[in-house]
Amino acid sequence: VISDTERDVGPAALARALLAASGELDDTWADRVAWELGGHDKLAALHSEPWGPEPVDWDLVPEDLHNRVREISELVDHVCGEVLDHEYATMAHRTLTRISQRSPEALHRRSSSAGWAAGILIALGKDSYAFSTGSGGLTQKMVLEAAGVKSLNNKDLTVRRAAGMDDNRRDQMLLHSSYRKRLAEMAKWED
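Given the sequence above, the corresponding structure tokens read:
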């Protein structure tokens, strides 16, 4: 069985195929991984060491959003303690800080903090291929339940837009070590 991380699928695959056809990409596995990360310099900097615990950087969060960000961050920490790990909390804190800087108006809207926490964690989980489609693994439903949310209502897409997360390219700072390790392995594959 070939998983989606081993098979070229979706819009990213089409973009890589077009670049390969134009001669801008050799289309080796290393090129594919470099493209996903945003360039060969990003691939060269790729490492798979787990992120250590990292709180929200309050100096970067606008003062008027401190209470909102604190509430969301506490929910993130709770969900990570229930079903994820400290790496997801670190990545979520980074994402939350980024949203507060790039799209503060999004956090000012009337929406539940639990929805934001779940949306951030699910967006990050999707980017790191954390969710299982089979039995026994982590599911999005587990994240929603731990956050006390019944439905995602596309909050993960709102998070992606607000944080400036590209649909095809990944920011290493927002990827779990397990997926970064997988990317490093894929970059070494021979075609």
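The first helix runs from residue 10 to 22. Try to locate this feature in the token string yourself.
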